[in-house]
Specification:
single chain, alpha+beta, Thiol Ester Dehydrase, Chain A, 7-stranded antiparallel beta sheet, 9 strands, MaoC-like_dom, hydro-lyase activity, MaoC-like domain-containing protein, UPF0336/Enoyl-CoA_hydratase
């Protein structure tokens, strides 16, 4: 997993290695990628009870104007709490807004990103506002949003 930190207003990025503790700062971007499989769709459908045929029947999806079966949008958006919780165990997700921009199909590689844009300390915990984005095919934006999480620490695991 890479951690990128903006170091000047020209947009240069500096990569940090995993040696030594890193502290989350405003502007930091955390990323993870994932390819969604048929099994992911089935498992998510079982848990969510979302059995919309757009996720299971290519013909229905194509008749609705899509190229193929869709990955559930909320399954793709689950990358955001995964990214945060994997780096900050004990994080509490407070809110999330989402705008679905483009479909994600089974087999697409999706890159989720969360960027810290505001950090406030309160009672030895940290309220952090993140910009949240998912991309496929390089830079095609598929989900855009914002999240707020309470972090027990700003130290990245």
């Amino acid at each position: 997993m890479s951690i990128l930190r903006h170091v000047n207003i020209l947009g240069s990025l500096r990569c940090f290695s995993s040696s030594g503790p890193q502290i989350l700062r405003t502007g930091d971007i955390l990323r993870q990628s994932r390819i969604f499989s048929d099994e992911d769709i089935i498992d998510y459908s079982k848990v969510s009870h979302d059995s919309n045929p757009l996720h299971f029947d290519a013909g229905v999806a194509q008749n609705s104007g899509f190229e193929d079966r869709l990955v559930h949008g909320m399954l793709v958006a689950a990358l955001f709490p995964r990214i945060i919780a994997s780096r900050f165990p004990g994080a509490i997700y407070v809110s999330q807004s989402l705008q679905f921009k483009c479909p994600v199909y089974v087999g697409d590689e999706v890159r989720g990103e969360v960027q810290a844009v505001n950090i406030r300390e309160s009672k030895k915990k940290y309220m952090v506002k993140f910009l949240t984005k998912c991309f496929k095919s390089g830079e095609l934006l598929v989900i855009d949003g914002e999240a707020i999480a309470i972090l027990p620490s700003l130290t990245l695991d």
